[in-house]
Amino acid sequence: MKKQLTITGMTCEGCKATVTRNIKKLPGVQTVSINLSNGQTIVDANLIYSEDEIQEAIGKDSKYQIVRQETNLCSSSAPQSTTATKGFFATYKPLLLIVVFITGVSVLAQAGQHGSIDWSLWMRHFMAGFFIVFSFFKLLNLEGFANSYRMYDIVAARWKGWGYIYPFVELALGIAYLIHFNPTITNLTTVIVLGVSSIGVIKSNLDKRKIKCACLGDVFNLPMSKVTIIEDLTMVGMAAIMLA
């Protein structure tokens, strides 16, 4: 995407630097070119952003306001979406590999000791691995994750601090599943936390927003899709089963 906008309120190089820095916080933004004399701004990104999303990154109540969306320019070097140029398995390869590895390790953790699979124990091991591994990727770039997460999560959109806390909540849940800490509290917390998170994911899919999924933090450029819904709701379902 190469989007050309006019932004008012910039009167000096400091203003220009502030607007540039805020827009570059959006995942996938490559360059931001601003003409200070007339406010003309060109945003070059690997993902598609609406005028409202760019304004939100700048600040809704900021003195810098987008007054007109002039045009969308074609950019041959920047694909409009990840899945447009790559197939499903190529796009979601990191996520699929992680899920397969966690599934396999959860099975092997029992097979060597019991010779059979206790599915309740398997779910607990899977949940522990899921939360610990996914929190690890988020913590590699905490700020990058927080900026991506607030693009669609209903809590983080209102309170950015939740994006910085969320990976630690996941890590705590992973440890709780691993040591079998108070199953009722652990599973109930999972249902609430991921259930609320799923709302934003579902809404973004229904709105057909072309944004980045933050499930693996800012390390991999995974697009938001039905895969993210399945991922969240599966975890909610497993926690609900164990809670019951």
Short description:
With 244 residues, the chain is of the alpha+beta class. It has ten helices and six strands.
Chain-wise SSE layout:
Blueprint (H helix, E strand, L loop, with lengths): L1 E7 L4 H11 L5 E7 L4 E6 L5 H8 L6 E9 L8 H4 L2 H4 L1 H22 L4 H22 L1 H8 L11 H19 L3 H24 L5 E2 L8 E2 L2 H18 L1
Antiparallel strand pairs: 1-3, 1-4, 2-3, 5-6
Helix pairs in contact: 1-2, 5-6, 6-8, 6-10, 7-8, 9-10
Describe the structure.
The chain is α+β, with helices and mostly antiparallel strands and 244 residues long. Helices cover 57% and strands 14% of the residues. Strands 2-3-1-4 form a 4-stranded antiparallel beta sheet, with helices on one face. Strands 5-6 form a two-stranded antiparallel sheet. α1 (13-23) crosses α2 and α5 (93-114) packs antiparallel against α6. The termini are far apart. The model is unreliable at 70-85 (pLDDT under 50).
Low-confidence stretches: 70-85
Strand content: 5-15%
Q: What is the rounded distance between the termini? A: 47 Å
Helices and strands, in order, run as EHEEHEHHHHHHHEEH
Question: What is the mean predicted local confidence, pLDDT?
Answer: 85
Shape: elongated
Put simply, the count of helices is 10
Beta strands, count = 6
Class derived from helix and strand content:
alpha+beta
Q: Tell me about the biggest sheet?
A: 4 strands, antiparallel
Order of strands in the sheet with the most strands? 2-3-1-4
Secondary structure: helix percent: 55-70%
Radius of gyration: 21 Å
